[in-house]
Amino acid sequence: MEERTEINDLGEFGLIEYLTRNIEINNAGTILGVGDDAAVIDHFGKQTVVSTDMLVEGIHFDLMYTPLKHLGYKAVVVNLSDIYAMNATPTHITLSLAFSNRFSLEALSEFYEGVYAACDKYKVDLIGGDTTTSQKGFVISVTALGEVAPDKFVKRSTAGKGDLLCVSGDLGAAYLGLTILEREKQIFLENPNIQPDLENETYCIGRQLKPEARHDIISFLAGKEIMPTAMMDVSDGLSSEILHICKQSEVGCVLYEEKIPVHDDSRQLAMKLGLDPTACALSGGEDYELLFTLKQEDYDKITLNEEIAVIGYITDASEGAHIITRGNNKHQITAQGWNAFK
Amino acid sequence: MEERTEINDLGEFGLIEYLTRNIEINNAGTILGVGDDAAVIDHFGKQTVVSTDMLVEGIHFDLMYTPLKHLGYKAVVVNLSDIYAMNATPTHITLSLAFSNRFSLEALSEFYEGVYAACDKYKVDLIGGDTTTSQKGFVISVTALGEVAPDKFVKRSTAGKGDLLCVSGDLGAAYLGLTILEREKQIFLENPNIQPDLENETYCIGRQLKPEARHDIISFLAGKEIMPTAMMDVSDGLSSEILHICKQSEVGCVLYEEKIPVHDDSRQLAMKLGLDPTACALSGGEDYELLFTLKQEDYDKITLNEEIAVIGYITDASEGAHIITRGNNKHQITAQGWNAFK
Fold first, then answer.
1. How many CA atoms lie within 13 A of A191 on its CB side?
2. Closest partner CB to A131 (pick from B16, B22, B145)
3. What is the number of CB-based contacts under 8 A between chain A and chain B?
4. How many beta carbons lie within 10 A of that of residue A226, not counting itself?
């Protein structure tokens, strides 16, 4: 009998590690391959940054409450976020779609409107793609290309002891937006006459349906001549991403619960839903904020930027990765981020 | 009531034309966008060529008779073929996959073995990707990057009157391979005790399951200092591709049936299946040969290459696109290539 190992047992990152363990590099121009937000290839002076993402209906989005225009916008933005997370500027995308025959041209046009809106806002060009049918559901694959000056790209694996741990914007809102949308969907399915009550939740719902990529943070850091020592975007949840940086940089960290930025609207919605705002920030995902580490001497340069919060610091690996709670308890950080395989 | 236009009515190319009709270019480095085998972007001297393809289970492949290793190999090769079709050299790929939980790690490993075999053979690097679950079926998205010296890339839109119409290798075999695999599948489904009779059909089945991209033709042309005036790869069938070149170059053509290269094994299998070998070559698809046009003065340089056949010539657009049959009849060429939307 053939051996059978379930993918669930490995999770996405274990799976990628396993499948790429024997990977060989053929081209001298390949500077950074699998294992970061994006790959880096050398092109005669400047470097090209490449990232790709796949979004699958029923796994990553629910068309019952996701307007197609927003979906097109988000499909682009989540890829651009990976390019910014390398400290690079996105320039081009390709887009491949598979969809079943329940999609009309009008529906696809709406999707593309969102794609073009994102291209326009972030000044990137859609340069190619593929469209085909699927047996079931809508599948979106975007590859983004960007550019960065030589040696200016920032990896996940280069955080150093004593560095400040920083995050942009606020966290947890996208997850809370998803939670309320899912709740209203269930209510609607049980009784189609009840109108959804979403008016007060525009902030969190907006963060879920139409996220933005933090090009402003990249511009700010460049303007202040700050090179983060490590960086990635927050797509799976803060705790999962912090553990990636710690593992790949071979360091530990201390994170302060009270420093984690959570929007007032998120806090209120969390309360209403009976959820812990900190748990939403740590494990929610889809915030597309930037998580990065800085040398301590750069601290003065960021204090006036209200969009950047210092949430902790990097320690020696032997000290592990911990969170200090508001009640001054110390807990080990565990990855409970979003996992498509569970 | 909302308007609803069926995608079927447009076909893939009509759909792409419609969806990209208002496309705007933001980056000066975007040299060639949507509408060819690949896009071209400028990177400080050399140019980067980008192509992407999506393969969907049940639409593009049937796992009942497609070994996963072959599928991985083919998923890479069909993208590299698009890069070669630009007269460029592929250097990197990204790979995104969605699969349901019926796939084990062993199955995925087999698929990746094929991916790596193709990367190894064509000297390209897998630099990134995404893996996720699907509700149903296996979806593969590959983006390939390549490089080409400035102004050496070859488009579809630049064929000129009087140019020779050429094709590499032979045509129709991949379609015939698919046909026999589908027939044996039906026989097996009706009576699982009957063993498939495929031994004599290794050539055609090989062309279907494990195609190769024609890097040898690109090397040969470069060695002889021949720049094709237009080029594309044959993925949808010869007639469909010829019409693309005619439409985009605003020219007509004459194609000679007797000049279309068909392998002896293909001819025999076509006979056995009661199919016309020429129809298989014209409409079959998936041959991944190169279709290109040359200046007449380059004719002497290619006569000794048995892998290149001159199959016709380019005319004024007003003369249309025609095939001269063995019986010396003249017919208009119509696109009956493979269409995922039908």
1. 5
2. B16
3. 277
4. 18
A12, B50: Cβ pair inside 8 Å?
Answer: no
> What pLDDT sits at residue A71?
96
**What value of ipTM does the predicted structure carry?**
0.85
Tell me the sheet residues that pair with B289.
Answer: B234
The residue among B287, B273, B99 whose CA lies nearest residue B186 is: B273
Q: Which domains does chain B have, with CATH numbers?
A: 7-148 (3.30.1330.10), 164-332 (3.90.650.10)
The number of beta carbons lying within 10 Å of the beta carbon of residue A142 is 31
Sheet-wide strand order for B289-294: B230-234, B289-294, B164-168, B308-316, B251-256, B321-324, B330-332
Confidence of residue B43 (pLDDT cuts 50, 70, 90): low
> B43 and A147 in contact by Cβ < 8 A?
yes
- For residue A48, list its beta bridge partners: A41, A147
From the candidates B12, B34, B105, B156, which should be mutated to test the interface with A, based on the most A CB atoms within 10 A?
A: B105
Please write the tens of the pLDDT for every residue from B135-190: 888 999 999 988 888 778 899 999 999 999 999 999 999 999 999 999 999 988 88
Distance from CA of A284 to the nearest CA of B (A): 18
Plot region of A59 (φ>0 → left; ψ -120 to 50 → alpha; else → beta) = alpha
Q: Angle, to 10 degrees, between the axis of helix A264-273 and the axis of helix A202-209?
A: 100
Chain B CB contacts of A68 under 8 Å are none
CB atoms within 10 A of CB A69: 19
Please list every residue in chain B whose beta carbon sits closer than 8 Å to the beta carbon of residue A44.
43-46
B277 φ/ψ sector (left φ>0, alpha ψ -120 to 50, else beta): alpha
